[in-house]
Design goal:
By secondary structure, this protein is of the alpha/beta class. It folds into two domains: 274 residues, Aldehyde Dehydrogenase, Chain A, domain 1 (3-Layer(aba) Sandwich); 188 residues, 3-Layer(aba) Sandwich (Aldehyde Dehydrogenase, Chain A, domain 2). The chain has a seven-stranded mixed beta sheet, with helices on both faces. A six-stranded mixed beta sheet has the order 10-9-8-11-12-23, sandwiched between helices. It has a three-stranded mixed beta sheet with strand order 2-6-5, covered by helices on one side. Strand 11, helix 9 and strand 12 form a beta-alpha-beta unit. Helix 5 packs parallel to helix 6 and helix 10 packs across helix 11. The longest helix has 22 residues. The protein starts with 5 loop residues before the first strand and ends with a strand.
Length: 494
C-alpha cells in the first residue's frame, strides 16, 4: 500500500543559503556568530543556514521594539496602521508564489494545501484586522453627574510572539495582525524548524512602510531565544502556540514581571458519529480531520467516536480513505499528504503506533514509515480503541486515527470529555436536538456539527485545561493586545 501511494521526492532542491536575524529594520548576524540548519523534511536536505538568536539578540530586538513603540509607531494614527496592514497584504499577494514555495519546502506542506488554505487565511487575517485598527473604541460611562467618565483601550506594549512549526505563516499572522492593528510592537520568534517565511514577512513589512523596530524576527531555540523572550522584563505580553509542556514553562517564565500570556496549546479532539449521520460525508470529513497536514494540527479529530452499530462500517470507510492518500514531494500536484516535520516527530509517531499495538488496539491501516527518504508516515487507523489507552488520551500529532466505539449519548459524552484537553469537538447526527445537547455539554472551545475543522478569523479560537487559555481571532484578539484605561474628569464640585 505504501509503495503504491508514495511519490519519491526529487534528489535536488534549492541550494542552501544563509539567513540573518531581522532587528530594528536591519539584517544582522547573531551576536554569538552561531548558525543552525533548517531542513526540507521531504528530502532531508539542508535548505538554509539560519542565524541562531540568543539572549543578547532578544535584548536588542526588545530594545528596538520599545523604541518604536515609544517613538514613531506610537504616534501613528490608527487609520494609518490599518493602511500599512493592507499594504502588507498587497505585497504578500505580489509575492504569493514565492511564499507558497518557501512555506511548502520549509514545513513539508503540499503546495496545493498552502495555496488553498494557508495563504488565503493569512490575507483574510490581515484584511480583517486592518479594518479593526481605527475601530478600537472605549465608551462613555455616566458614573456621576459631576464628572465625565469614560474608558479608552491602549496597546499593551511590546509583544513576544512564539509561533509553532505546523502552520508558520498562518498562525504567525494570527498573532502579528491583531497586535500591529492595536498599535503594539512585536518580537517574533518562529519555530527553529520553520523560520524562513517569518523572515520574509518581516522583510515585506519593512517594504510596506512599517517603521524599523515595529516587527523584529529572531529565529532561535526555545531554551535560549524563547526563554529569553518570555523572561524579558521589558516584554509586556507573550502569545504562544505550542505544546502544553512548553506552555507551562512559559507561565513560569512570565511570572517575573507578571506579563500577560495567551496560550493556544494541544488537543485530543473527539469527532462523534451517530448512526443517523450522513456516513459518507462523516467518513470523508473524519479522514480529512486526522490526515490533513499529516495530522500535525492541534484540533485534529484524532479520536473518532463511532456508535457501536456502525463501528466496523466506519473503520472500513476510513481504511478506504487512507488508501487513496498519496505521500510524497509536497511540490508535486499528485501529493495529498507531505512528511512529518522532522526525524524526531516521525519517531514519536512510530512509537505511539507500537504503544497502540501493545495496549491491544487493532491496527487496521498504515502504521509504518512511508518511503526511505524524508520523514513520511503512512496514514494510520486503529480500531476497537479503549478510551483509557494512551493513543486515546495523549496527543500524537501525526496521522493516527483512534476509532472508539460507544453505545449511547451519555457514554459518548463521557468519552469525549474524558481527556486533559478542551480545544475542539465535532458531532455528526441528523437529530437537531442531539446537536444542541452536545453543543451544550461538550467541553471544547469550538464545537462543529455535521462538519469538522473549518475556522474563521471572525470567530474566537482557543480552549481550556491542557489546551490553554485565552482566545485568538475576532474581537477577543483585540482584547489580547490592549489594556483598558478608565478616565475621570471632574466637571463639578467633588
Amino acid at each position: 500500500m505504501i509503495e503504491d501511494t508514495y511519490i519519491a521526492p526529487p534528489s535536488t532542491r534549492l541550494e542552501a543559503r544563509r539567513e540573518l536575524l531581522l532587528i530594528d529594520g536591519r539584517h544582522v548576524p547573531a551576536q554569538s556568530g552561531n548558525y543552525f540548519d533548517t531542513l526540507d523534511p521531504a528530502s532531508e536536505r539542508v535548505i538554509a543556514r539560519v542565524a541562531e538568536g540568543g539572549a543578547s539578540d532578544i535584548d536588542a530586538a526588545v530594545a528596538a521594539a520599545r523604541r518604536a513603540f515609544d517613538g514613531e509607531w506610537g504616534r501613528l494614527r490608527a487609520a494609518d496602521r490599518g493602511r500599512l496592514l493592507l499594504r502588507l497584504a498587497d505585497l504578500i499577494r505580489e509575492n504569493l508564489d514565492a511564499l507558497i514555495e518557501l512555506e511548502s519546502q520549509d514545513a513539508g506542506k503540499p503546495v496545493s494545501a498552502v495555496r488553498r488554505q494557508d495563504l488565503p487565511a493569512v490575507l483574510d487575517t490581515l484584511s480583517y484586522y486592518a479594518g479593526w485598527a481605527d475601530k478600537i473604541n472605549g465608551e462613555v460611562i455616566p458614573a456621576r453627574p459631576d464628572a465625565l467618565t469614560y474608558t479608552v483601550r491602549e496597546p499593551v506594549g511590546v509583544v513576544g510572539a512564539i509561533v509553532p512549526w505546523n502552520f508558520p505563516l498562518m498562525i504567525g499572522m494570527w498573532k502579528l495582525a491583531p497586535a500591529l492593528a492595536c498599535g503594539c510592537t512585536v518580537v517574533l520568534k518562529p519555530a527553529e524548524l520553520t523560520p524562513l517565511t517569518a523572515l520574509r514577512i518581516g522583510e515585506l513589512a519593512l517594504a510596506a512602510g512599517f517603521p524599523p523596530g515595529v516587527l523584529n524576527v529572531v529565529p532561535g531555540f526555545g531554551k535560549t531565544a524563547g526563554a529569553a523572550l518570555v523572561e524579558h522584563p521589558d516584554v509586556d505580553k507573550i502569545t504562544f502556540t505550542g505544546s502544553p509542556g512548553v506552555g507551562r514553562e512559559i507561565l513560569r517564565g512570565a511570572a517575573g514581571n507578571l506579563k500577560r500570556v495567551t496560550l493556544e496549546l494541544g488537543g485530543k479532539s473527539a469527532n462523534i458519529i451517530f448512526p443517523d449521520a450522513d456516513r459518507e460525508a462523516a467518513a470523508k470529513a473524519a479522514a480529512s480531520a486526522i490526515f490533513f497536514n499529516a495530522g500535525q494540527v492541534c484540533s485534529a479529530g484524532s479520536r473518532i467516536l463511532v456508535h457501536q452499530s456502525i463501528h466496523d462500517e466506519m473503520v472500513e470507510r476510513l481504511i478506504e480513505r487512507a488508501r487513496t492518500i498519496r505521500l510524497g514531494d509536497p511540490r508535486d500536484s499528485r501529493t495529498s499528504m507531505g512528511p512529518l516535520i522532522c526525524a524526531a516527530q516521525l519517531q514519536r509517531v512510530l512509537n505511539y503506533v507500537e504503544i497502540g499495538k501493545r495496549e491491544g488496539a487493532r491496527l487496521a491501516a498504515g502504521g509504518a514509515r512511508g518511503g526511505d527518504v524524508g520523514f513520511f508516515m503512512a496514514p494510520t487507523v486503529f480500531a476497537d480503541v479503549e478510551p483509557q489507552m494512551r493513543i486515546s488520551q495523549e496527543e500524537i500529532f501525526g496521522p493516527v486515527a483512534a476509532v472508539i466505539p460507544f453505545k449511547d449519548e451519555e457514554q459518548a459524552l463521557r468519552i469525549a470529555n474524558g481527556t486533559a484537553y478542551g480545544l475542539a469537538a465535532g458531532v455528526w447526527t441528523a437529530d437537531i436536538g442531539r446537536v444542541h445537547r452536545f453543543v451544550r455539554r461538550l467541553k471544547a472551545g469550538t464545537v462543529w456539527a455535521n462538519t469538522f475543522g473549518p475556522t474563521d478569523v471572525r470567530l474566537p479560537w482557543g480552549g481550556a485545561r491542557d489546551s490553554g487559555f485565552g482566545r485568538e481571532h475576532g474581537a477577543a484578539a483585540i482584547e489580547n493586545f490592549t489594556e483598558p484605561k478608565a478616565v475621570w474628569i471632574q466637571t463639578g464640585p467633588a
